[in-house]
Amino acid sequence: MIDLNSLLRYDEIKNLGYDTIYLEQPVADIVYFDWKNILEPPPPNTSKQTLTELQTVSSATFNRNKKDIDLVHRIDQDPDSYFIDLTDKYKLSYPVSSIQEFYSIIKPILLNIKGIWNRPRPAQLAKYYNIPIDVMVSDTHHTASYPSGHTVYSSLVALILKHVYPVIDQRKLDILVNNTAKARVLQGVHFPSDNKASIKLIKFLFNKLKDDIL
Questions:
Q1: Is 132 part of any domain?
Q2: Residue 165 to residue 95: CA distance in whole angstroms
Q3: Distance, CA of 43 to CA of 39 (rounded, Å)
Q4: With DSSP H G I counted as helix, E B as strand and the rest as coil, what are the percentages for the chain, rounded to 5?
Q5: How far apart (Å, rounded) are the C-alpha atoms in residues 188 and 78?
Q6: How far are the Cα atoms of 68, 134, 208 from residue 122, in angstroms, in the given order?
Q7: Total count of domains within the chain
Q8: E strand or H helix that includes residue 186
Q9: Using alpha carbons only, how large is the chain's radius of gyration in Å?
Q10: pTM surpassing 0.85?
Q11: Taking the CB of residue 61, how many other CB atoms lie within 10 A of it?
Q12: Residue 85: φ, ψ to 5°
């Protein structure tokens, strides 16, 4: 016999979003390509992948050490800081104006894509699966989850630095991007697939726009 309550719950989980109204923001004229189809949809709320990711986020948030917590706070509030430390070691100036100009073009696309998919944050969905998540609450996770804005930003900074300063060890830049992605999971505010999508998005956008901006 079909359990009506289970069906209703399944439907509720399936359709759960961040609960925002999508108002598309204007995109710069130099964005001449179809940005809406760069990324595939996020994993469905009812998928095995999402359940596995929720368990990963839960485990991460309940096993944070002091180093993890310090990483979360620093990434959450100042994602530039680790990159500035690295450029300082090389005695290079941090290209703030280039980063800001590039990000100002990227940001509307990022917010629009978030609005299109309207993925719930992990903690919103986890309660339906009775999975606890210990979120470190801040004011930086009040948009839809997919993709991660912090990881988009860090990925962009890393690519700009690779382009402007090839002398910097690229592996160190990649580590900083991965640390940003890790921090957002440790904070309990992003799925791992949000971060993977962010890196894919920025690689595409950077390759399309770098010659016009840098």
A1: yes
A2: 10
A3: 12
A4: 65, 0, 35
A5: 18
A6: 19, 10, 31
A7: 1
A8: helix 170-186
A9: 18
A10: yes
A11: 23
A12: -55, -40
Give me the mean pLDDT over the 148-174 stretch: 98
Question: Is 145 within the bounds of a domain?
Answer: yes
Distance between CA atoms of 13 and 16, rounded to whole angstroms? 5
The overall average pLDDT reported for the chain is: 94
Contact (CB, 8 A) for 154 and 177? yes
| Residue 59: inside a domain | no
Look at residues 213, 206, 209 and name the one whose alpha carbon lies nearest to residue 158.
206
Q: DSSP strand E in the chain: where?
A: none
* Residue 138 lies in domain: 66-213
Q: Report the alpha-carbon distance of residue 151 to residue 147 in Å, rounded.
A: 8
> What would the pLDDT profile of 75-96 be if each residue is shown by its tens digit?
999 999 999 999 999 999 999 9
Report the C-alpha gap between 148 and 174 in whole angstroms. Answer: 16
How far, CA to CA in Å, does 26 sit from each of 30, 59, 106, 110, 167? 12, 39, 11, 12, 36
Query: Residue 59, Cα to own-chain centre: how many angstroms?
Result: 19
Here the tokens at position 25 are 């923001």
Determine the length of the chain: 214
Question: 75 is written with which tokens?
Answer: 């990434």
Q: Which of 3-12, 29-38, 158-167, 188-197 has the lowest mean pLDDT?
A: 3-12
* AA identity, residue 161: L
Residue 97 lies in a domain: yes
